[in-house]
Amino acid sequence: MSSLSLIEKQKLERELGMSSGYVLGFSNRTFDDFFREVVGVSIYDSYYDQASGSKAHRTRSFWRLATDEQVLLFLNGLREGWEIYSDEPIPDSAEKLLKQIIRRLGGHSEPVAQPKDEEVQVQIDENLSQRIFSQLIELADLAPQNRGFAFERFLKDLFDAYGLSARSSFRLIGEQIDGSFVLNKETYLLEAKWQNAPTGAADLHTFEGKLSQKAFWSRGLFLSNSGFSSDGLQAFGKGKRIVCMDGFDLSEMLRRRLSVVDVLEAKVRRAAETGRPFIPVRELFV
Fold first, then answer.
1. Which of 148, 219, 256, 280 ranks highest by number of CB atoms within 10 Å?
2. Contact at 8 Å (CB) between 84 and 273?
3. What is the average pLDDT across 50-58?
4. What CA–CA distances, in Å, run from 221 to 42, 47, 86, 159?
């Protein structure tokens, strides 16, 4: 049970606009994603059912049942992602309140710095990392008609090296999925492209459409070696179930021997906090 006081809860309710039954501008999906990725709980679990089951009631249940550590994750996530979930900058009164409660609960009143290079846990040895990096370089020399399938095989080997239970390309009626893998017990579908031009909004929307036909908890990783056009990312929008990686992310990850698990977790969390599907590795790991 958290140590939030009655007054703190009432002030939070006022800042979050909970008297309407809602919480900021969260939709059902973004509310679920926020709690899963930022806080680490399934807010739509029956454990948090209360009264009407509205987002406001579920948040009150969370405050009552959560640990202080979980409440800190919730509050820090709100501070960083407020503008995404309310479509307006955080008010001074809300910023001040969140900082006060975070300090009282023993957390940081400022966002925690991203891990430095030497702080990241390396999960594969140097020889294996170099071999995988060499395979990535060799893909550029292949004929275009062979490169796509070789790229998919490379990614399966990469994910397998980090214990992500990768599955290679499979076909369903009317569509093809380039593969899948498991991260933190969540299944991700994979779309992989190696082409000359940056990936645009049309391909992103197509992949999002594939996900919409799967179970509601399905998520996706879109990996485009040539990157993503800025116009395409803007047109694609925010708050989707896709995170993105490009070729620079892959080479940077292998060159610095970053764990692909750490990289994907950082991308998923930042996407949940900001709504942006693509954050470069060089921004996540300074």
1. 219
2. yes
3. 83
4. 21, 30, 26, 12
